[in-house]
Amino acid sequence: MRNIVSVDDYLLGEENSPVKHEYVDGAVFAMAGATAEHNEIAMMLGCSVGNSKSQLHKARKRLRELLHEVRHYAAHRLLEIAASGA
Question: Which domain, by its residues, includes 79?
Fold first, then answer.
């Protein structure tokens, strides 16, 4: 049986802790390489820090793909406009 930690107790403990922790469904886990900002974002999303980082990676990848498609479309459209003499 695990101990359930309240959000208030978790936040109070994080204020002075040299090691950052992850808060998931009342459980607290020590983490390596996470910042206070990572913890805050994950807590706001209601997911683990690892999951929030993974989702961020996927979102950035998709954004790069969309930007590439837009640039490709714009370049071809500009060529069409130039060729038409407009």
Answer: 7-84
Q: Is residue 49 part of a domain?
A: yes
At residue 86, the pLDDT reads 63
Is 18 a domain residue?
Answer: yes
- Note the pTM of the prediction, 2 decimals: 0.40
CA distance 58 to 53: 9
pLDDT in tens, 52-66: 777 777 777 877 888
**Cα 25 from Cα 32, distance rounded (Å):** 19
Q: What is the pLDDT of residue 52?
A: 72
In a domain, 2, yes or no: no
- Residue 11 covered by a domain: yes
